[in-house]
Structure formats: structure tokens, C-alpha cells
Design goal:
about 675 residues; alpha/beta; Rossmann fold; 3 domains; seven-stranded parallel β-sheet; five-stranded parallel β-sheet; 26 helices; about 15% strand
């Protein structure tokens, strides 16, 4: 057949399309439609606007590119390969979606340099983008000086219909509009197709008007298939709007080039041999699978030289900045390198048994404010519960439009969006340590974001107060029962329930170090701090160091114990008081405080045996939550004191009493075991 000559730009665009087609076909799995339709948009952005260095993917001032519609992952993998990222080869593309490949079905930030965030569940990517844009705004306001715009980068996001349907995107984008994040530019791949078929089946709203109501600047590119100039102009216009985030609706044809173009049949299925052949003919593509024409590859690889030049210009600017503003430069470098300042943990409050007791949420507030003075990277807030969560930093104002240097973020009643935004703040790569807060029961609203924190190694600190039925009168809708157990089921998440002031300080020591990847190897982990509403006494024997081990001996009798009482959080005091009475009756009793299962499991076998010797079978655990999972520590012969039903509306102390969280009940269970 006679093939029409293609322009260099067409060759570059079709390189993306056919790499996606070939990889999906080889895997017989994947989503080819989005990469084929969004290829022109991606080409214009990456070739003409995106500031990045393929040879240094972690360059500090790079633009951030996020593929929120993560099912179209071959778009991103193709771009990384074509522009010359060393970590992704053509062979990796051929292993798309295969065991231990570098090209998983959805982008994973821990797999590939150049992939900023993990984007699988729809809506999370754009919400992460809001957090990343907030990080840029905060750091620019904090560190930039006249003539030294050392932090000056954009966050670009490609999102699809599915992202816009998910509620988390609405939560985050509403806040972005309120904050006026002008460096956030989102491209809506407007192709009107989802897996079920046309979006008319379920999604007929005017997305542009919705985002306009959020406070975004809106543009539409009517022909995103071939009008590269219109795409270019839209990006330039968006960059000129500095006081609003921008949404560019790019009308595209899903699966462009295929005979199935514009249908749901191209959304998430391999094309098949015949259709692959037809697509090659339709696009005038004469090359074998995974072969890229030399002219196209050479053009794409200009990104290497371009990126090196851009970075070198920035390096020179930063060198001058460092000479003039040495203290600020040192802080910025320390944060970027995920280092903590020397002696930062010396500010953590400590307590004796004689110190007045308090709610652990109040202890948490004191710790946050102490840390704020030594950790400028600490930033966060609450989902409209700051006075109750005790999360306000007294040394700072509110992070608002035009006041981005402040560190108190008002998330509003947007729990899911808050968690996803916090992930973005953590994954920006600049070294911020974000925290976010609400009631523990509302982790139900943000579980997807929490799970992604753990999966994508985002060092977020979740400050969850009102941690049990002891919160009282709000009743069972607000009283967490199963939540601690369900959160413990998430891999790579520290769930910490401190017993008093010392353990609250210890919880923050763990959480800060985990957020920096400075504990148990270099794996960064999020933490959940489950904190009490009611006051608790400061107990003898609690310590910051004890918390870092997950569980430790709080008090003991001489010799091998007859019984071990294991407590967490506010119920640890019940174990202490019960042990005192049992010892007065001649029993040998050990009390173990276990604020964090995960940390305890990471200790060596010798330490775990020293705390919970296998020979001691008589054990009682006490925790104001479901007993699910406690068999791991009390065994077949032990008893777990907990609550395996919903709570009740009553004063907190009455709830605790009626559900058996009393010294008398702990004593009764212990004596039943001891016979």
C-alpha cells in the first residue's frame, strides 16, 4: 500500500499510540483507548512545556506530571521511555503487566522514577495533585526571595470521566478552587466513554460549569485529536492565570486510529490481531511491534539535553541563593534529603506519674506545637474539627489564598479529599511532613487514601481522636468499634494507640521517623495515632522508647508471671490497677503496654519472647474495640476484653462501665483464668 508521508509530530504522537497498542496486545490485558486518544495532548505537554530532566527524575524544581486516569498507564510508560528515562527500557514495555515487571497495570510511584504518585483508584490522582500544588505554593511562599524563584514549578494532571465521577475529586478540587492554586493545571480527557459505554448512561452534567463553580479557570479544546496549536494555546493561557487552578477540557476520541475508536470496546480490552493490523494501516504505521522510527525517537530524546540545561540553570540560581540565604538553603536541602534536624526529638514532652493526667488528644496538641518549632516541614490540619482534634499550630496562621507560607490547613468537611491531599503533600518530594485529623470513626470516609498512603510510601501522620465508645453522647454513629482492627489489616501502616502523655510523645517520635523513612530500613510509612477524648492518668513506667518497640513491660512481679495483662490506649490504666490488686492477693502479674502491634512484630524473636513468653498461657487483653485479632496475643487459653457490638449514646464513663471496661471486670476475667 502507498503510505502518506507523516510529519515528525505525527510520528512522535503515533509512537505513543502504537507502543500502547503493542504492549497491551502482548499482555492481552490493559487499557489502550486513553493513550491512543490522549497522545496529542501528551506530546504537546511533554515536548513543549514540561520542565523535567530524564537523567535526574528527582530534580527538585521539576514540573510534576500526574496521570490520574491511571488505567491508561501505557501513556506514561511510553512517555518515560521515549524521553529517555534510564530506568525504563523497551524490554520493560514488552513486559507490561507481567510478574515483577517495571510496568504494572497502573502507575506505581515506588516502581519507576518519573512516576510521581500511585494512581489506581480513580479520583485519587487529581486529589494528590491538589496536595502537590499546595506543597509548591507553600514552599515558594516560604523560601523564595526577590530575584530567587527557586521553587517555581507546575503540577499537570490528566484526568478522565471516571475521575470526575468519583467524589474524592470533587472534595479536593473544591478546596483547590478556594485556595486559588494557579500552578495546578488539569486536562480533562473528555471522550465521553467509560467501561459500560457512553457516559450518557450515568454522567450528563456540565463538568466545566461545576469546576467554574469551584473557582477554576475553564477552557475547552474542541479538537484534541489533531489541533496541536489549540492545545498549545490553552496551556499558555492556563499558565497566565495565576490566581486560579485551570481545567482544560480536551475533546478527544478514545482509541483514535482504531476501527473501534469512540466506543467502549477500545476502553479496556486488547485490540486483537486483526484490529492491530487495521490500526497500523489507518495511522500509516509501517513499523513492526515496539519499533520506533529513528526520527521520532531522536526528537523525543531531545528532552535529555533540554532537561540537563534547565536543571543546570536552576542549579546556578540555587548556588547563588545558597550564598545569600545560607540558612534557608540548608533547611531546604535537609528537607529534600529527608533528614531530620539534630536533636529534634528533645522537644518531646515527658511526664511522671505525679503529673496531672489529660486526654491523649490534648497531649497530641502539645506535641504538635512543640515539634512545629523545630520541624518547619510539619504542615497540616483537620476536617473542620481543629478545636476538638487539637491540631492548630499556635505559631502559624491559616494556609489560605495568598497566605501560603502558613502551616494550618483548613480542609473543611472533606475527609476523603483531606487524606488524598495529604498524600500529595507527602509525595511532592520536597520533604514536607503532612498531618491530617478527624475522629477515628471517620477513617471509614478516607480508607482508600489511607491505604494508598501505605502502598505508595507516603509519610502522612493521621491524627485520629475520639478513639472509642468513651467519646460518649454522640452515640454509635460516632463511636469507633471495628476501626482499629480494620486499620491494623492494612500492610505497612503503623496504628498507634498511646496510653498517656509519654506514649503520645513516643507515638510522634515513631510517626516522624517513619515519615522520613528513618525507621526499620528506608521504607517510608504512614502512621495513625488513635487518641482519647477522655482524660487518662500518666502511668508509672511508660516511656517514649517503649513505644518505639511496639510493646513493653510496664510493671512486673518477681519470677515467671502467673498472668499477663495487655492493655492499649486508655484501657492500659485498667490493667495497671487490676494488677495491683492481684499482686496484693499473692499473684505474679505482668502488665504489658502494647501501643502498636506492627512495631512489636518488627522486633526480633528474642525481644518478643522477653515481653510475652510463650510459657505463660494465661493472658488478658483489654482494648475498647472489637476483639478481632487479639487471639494472636492472648492465644487459645486467654481472654480478650473488648466490644463486639455497636456502642450507645450516653456519657462516656457510663458507656465504658456498661460495656465492661472497668477494673472489676478485668479482675473477674483474670481470676477466671487463674482459677
Amino acid at each position: 500500500m502507498v503510505v502518506a508521508t507523516q510529519s515528525l509530530e505525527e510520528l512522535c504522537i503515533n509512537s505513543i499510540r502504537l507502543l500502547a497498542v503493542d504492549a497491551v496486545e502482548k499482555a492481552n490485558s490493559g487499557h489502550p483507548g486513553l493513550p491512543m486518544g490522549a497522545a496529542p495532548l501528551a506530546f504537546v505537554l511533554w515536548d513543549r512545556f514540561l520542565r523535567f530532566n530524564p537523567k535526574n527524575p528527582a530534580w527538585f524544581n521539576r514540573d510534576r506530571f500526574l496521570l490520574s486516569a491511571g488505567h491508561g498507564s501505557m501513556l506514561q510508560y511510553a512517555l518515560l521511555y521515549l524521553t529517555g528515562y534510564d530506568d525504563l527500557t523497551l524490554e520493560d514495555l514488552k513486559q507490561f503487566r507481567q510478574w515483577e515487571s517495571k510496568t504494572p497495570g497502573h502507575p506505581e510511584n515506588f516502581m519507576n522514577p518519573g512516576v510521581e504518585i500511585t494512581t489506581g483508584p480513580l479520583g485519587q490522582g487529581i486529589a494528590n495533585g491538589v496536595g502537590i500544588a499546595m506543597a509548591e505554593a507553600h514552599l515558594a511562599a516560604t523560601f523564595n526571595k526577590p530575584d530567587f524563584p527557586i521553587i517555581d514549578h507546575y503540577t499537570y494532571v490528566i484526568l478522565g470521566d471516571g475521575d470526575n465521577m468519583e467524589g474524592v475529586s470533587g472534595e479536593a478540587c473544591s478546596l483547590a478552587g478556594h485556595l486559588g492554586l494557579g500552578k495546578l493545571i488539569a486536562f480533562y480527557d473528555d471522550n465521553h466513554i467509560s467501561i459500560d459505554g457512553s457516559t450518557d448512561l450515568a454522567f450528563t452534567e456540565d463538568v466545566g460549569k461545576r469546576f467554574e463553580a469551584y473557582g477554576w479557570h475553564i477552557q475547552t479544546v474542541e479538537n484534541g485529536d489533531t489541533d496541536l496549536d489549540a492545545i498549545h494555546q490553552a496551556i499558555e493561557t492556563a499558565q497566565s492565570v495565576t490566581d486560579q487552578p485551570s481545567l482544560i477540557k480536551v475533546k478527544t476520541t478514545i482509541g483514535y486510529g482504531s476501527n473501534k475508536a469512540g466506543t467502549s470496546g477500545i476502553h479496556s480490552d486488547a485490540l486483537g490481531e486483526a484490529e492491530v493490523k487495521a490500526t497500523r494501516e489507518n495511522l500509516g504505521w509501517q513499523y513492526e511491534p515496539f519499533v520506533i522510527p529513528e526520527d521520532a525517537l531522536n526528537h523525543w530524546r531531545k528532552a535529555i539535553e533540554r532537561g540537563a540545561k534547565i536543571e543546570e540553570e536552576w542549579n546556578q540560581l540555587f548556588a547563588s541563593y545558597k550564598q545569600k540565604y545560607s540558612e534557608e538553603a540548608r533547611t531546604l536541602e535537609r528537607m529534600h534529603e529527608a533528614e531530620l534536624p539534630e536533636g529534634w526529638d528533645k522537644v518531646l514532652p515527658t511526664y511522671t506519674q505525679e503529673d496531672k493526667g489529660d486526654a491523649t488528644r490534648n497531649h497530641s496538641g502539645k506535641v504538635l506545637n512543640a515539634l512545629a518549632g523545630v520541624l518547619p516541614e510539619l504542615i497540616g490540619g483537620s476536617a473542620d474539627l481543629a478545636p476538638s482534634n487539637k491540631t492548630l499550630l499556635k505559631s502559624s496562621g491559616d494556609f489560605q489564598k495568598g497566605q501560603y507560607a502558613n502551616r494550618n490547613i483548613r480542609f473543611g468537611v472533606r475527609e476523603h479529599g483531606m487524606g488524598a491531599i495529604a498524600n500529595g503533600l507527602a509525595l511532592d518530594g520536597s520533604g514536607l511532613i503532612p498531618y491530617c485529623a478527624t475522629f477515628l470513626v471517620f477513617t471509614d470516609y478516607m480508607r482508600a487514601a489511607i491505604r494508598l498512603s501505605a502502598l505508595s510510601e507516603a509519610g502522612v501522620i493521621y491524627v485520629m481522636t475520639h478513639d472509642s465508645i468513651a467519646l460518649g453522647e454522640d452515640g454509635p454513629t460516632h463511636q469507633p468499634v471495628e476501626h482499629i482492627a480494620s486499620l491494623r489489616a492494612i500492610p505497612d501502616l503503623y496504628v498507634i494507640r498511646p496510653a498517656d502523655g509519654n506514649e503520645t510523645s513516643g507515638a510522634y517520635k515513631v510517626a516522624i521517623k517513619a515519615a522520613r523513612g528513618k525507621r526499620f530500613g528506608n521504607k517510608t510509612r504512614p502512621s495513625i495515632l488513635a487518641l482519647s477524648r477522655q482524660g487518662v492518668p500518666n502511668l508509672a513506667g511508660t516511656s517514649i522508647e517503649g513505644v518505639t518497640k511496639g510493646a513493653y513491660i510496664l510493671s512486673d512481679s518477681d519470677g515467671t508471671p502467673d498472668l499477663i495483662l495487655i492493655g492499649t490506649g486508655s484501657e492500659t490504666q485498667l490493667c495497671v490497677k487490676a494488677a495491683e490488686q492481684l499482686r496484693n492477693e499473692g499473684k505474679k502479674v505482668r502488665v504489658v503496654s502494647m501501643p502498636c502491634w506492627e512495631l512489636f512484630q518488627e522486633q526480633d524473636a528474642e525481644y518478643r519472647e522477653s515481653v510475652l513468653p510463650k510459657a505463660v498461657k494465661k493472658r488478658v487483653s483489654v482494648e475498647a474495640g472489637t476483639t478481632f485479632g487479639w487471639c494472636r496475643y492472648v492465644g487459645d487459653e486467654g481472654i480478650a476484653v473488648g466490644i463486639d457490638q455497636f456502642g450507645s449514646s450516653a456519657p462516656g464513663n457510663i458507656c465504658m462501665e456498661k460495656f465492661g471496661f472497668t477494673v472489676d471486670n478485668v479482675l473477674a476475667k483474670a481470676k477466671a483464668l487463674l482459677g
